[in-house]
Write a structure and sequence with these properties.
Layout (H helix, E strand, L loop, with lengths): L2 E11 L2 E7 L4 E3 L1 E2 L2 E2 L8 E3 L1 H7 L2 H11 L3 H10 L26 H7 L10 H12 L3 E3 L28 H6 L8 H8 L10 E4 L4 H10 L2
Helix pairs in contact: 1-8, 2-4
């Protein structure tokens, strides 16, 4: 899809302000094919998908949803497959599911607004992060996990424990220096213990994500 995003407040028709035009010169007005397009604030000129993403064209994505996608139900279903409208499953209390409006099949104005993340769509920051990670993972929708980080070692509360071991690291060298206790034991333990506890990824869903689509989306996010 390529079009001209050119709001012209000087031209007002019976369908409202002219927001742009198609490549063949047809006006795109505020009232458009049974719905009301979102407000547009800038004239971006001729734009394709990459420029629409980079410069945030409202009318581009509204028309993409309304005229290029076969049916609004496809947009709704794909949104749900990304995990929107459901808890992510993270191991923390209080997570909300968000909300994906199910009236976009019949509500043209709602569809136009939904296409740019408005209407009654409710998304949490974590759900947005999961969506972006799905693009990076080639279509795998992962369950977020809280990773444990080992940031130190246990503290010896009883000083007597320090001298309890008959053998300890660098014992002979320490004795020659007049030190008769394990000075470097905890340091050695830090070197030997892993810092991060690994977790096996949990895939909640797998979306069809061709390399060509993934690359185009990445290019638009630069």
């Amino acid at each position: 899809l390529t079009l001209y995003d050119e709001i012209n407040p000087q031209i007002v028709t019976d369908q409202g302000t002219v927001l742009g035009r198609t490549l063949d010169g047809k006006w795109i007005t505020r009232q458009y094919k049974g719905g009301r397009l979102p407000r547009s604030h800038a004239s971006l000129g001729k734009i394709d998908f990459l420029e629409a993403m980079e410069r945030s064209s409202n009318i581009y994505f509204s028309l993409l949803a309304g005229e290029v996608i076969d049916h609004p139900s496809s947009l709704y279903d794909t949104t749900r497959e990304f995990g929107f409208g459901s808890p992510t499953g993270i191991d923390l209390i209080g997570e909300i599911a968000g909300y994906v409006p199910d009236d976009i099949r019949d509500n043209r104005t709602g569809l136009y607004a939904f296409a740019i993340g408005q209407h009654s769509l409710v998304v949490t920051p974590l759900q947005a992060s999961v969506m972006l990670s799905t693009l990076a993972n080639g279509g795998e929708v992962l369950k977020p996990q809280v990773v444990n980080l080992i940031a130190g070692v246990s503290i010896l509360n009883d000083p007597a424990q320090l001298f309890a071991s008959p053998r300890y690291a660098y014992q002979d060298y320490l004795k020659s220096a007049g030190l008769h206790f394990p000075l470097f034991t905890e340091t050695q333990k830090i070197r030997e213990e892993p810092k991060i506890t690994p977790f096996t990824k949990e895939v909640r869903n797998t979306l069809f994500m061709p390399r060509e689509v993934q690359t185009k989306l990445f290019d638009s996010l630069y």
